[in-house]
Specification:
The protein has five helices and five strands, in the order E-H-E-H-E-H-E-H-E-H. The protein has about 120 residues and is an alpha/beta fold. Helix 3 links the parallel strand 3 and strand 4.
Length: about 120
């Protein structure tokens, strides 16, 4: 089962996306800040991380840097409320493979996640 970690300081966004993917048979985890995300990453080893750029405490770029220190291969999709090309270039250099803008369009999010991370349920 594919594991997804949703990292956003807006609890409503976390809950909404978490339930959306749970309904599609993903195992989901949510973190409201970068520090919590890093703890979950170490414990649960998700396949995909949906990471908001703008967060209080530790922003998404700093969180992504720390994620890469722990796991160089986990797929990270950045989420941003505005088109921040300079920040997206930094994220790309740090290994984020895609970014999606808010408001989230769930069909687009599902397409991106499924094209990059859905594991075959029949494979052990």
């Amino acid at each position: 089962m594919t594991k997804i970690l949703i990292v956003d300081d807006e609890i409503d966004v976390c809950d909404f996306v978490k339930h959306f993917f749970e309904d599609r048979n993903f195992r989901t985890f949510a973190a409201l800040d970068g520090e919590e995300a890093l703890r979950i990453l170490k414990k649960e080893k998700p396949d995909i991380i949906l990471l908001d750029i703008r967060m209080k405490k530790m922003d998404g770029i700093e969180t992504l840097k720390k994620i890469r220190e722990i796991d160089k291969d986990v797929k990270v999709i950045m989420i941003t409320a505005v088109n921040e090309q300079d920040k997206m270039e930094i994220c790309h250099k740090l290994g984020a493979f895609k970014y999606i803008t808010k408001p989230l369009i769930l069909e687009e999010l599902e397409r991106v996640v499924c094209s990059h991370g859905k594991k075959d349920e029949n494979v052990s």
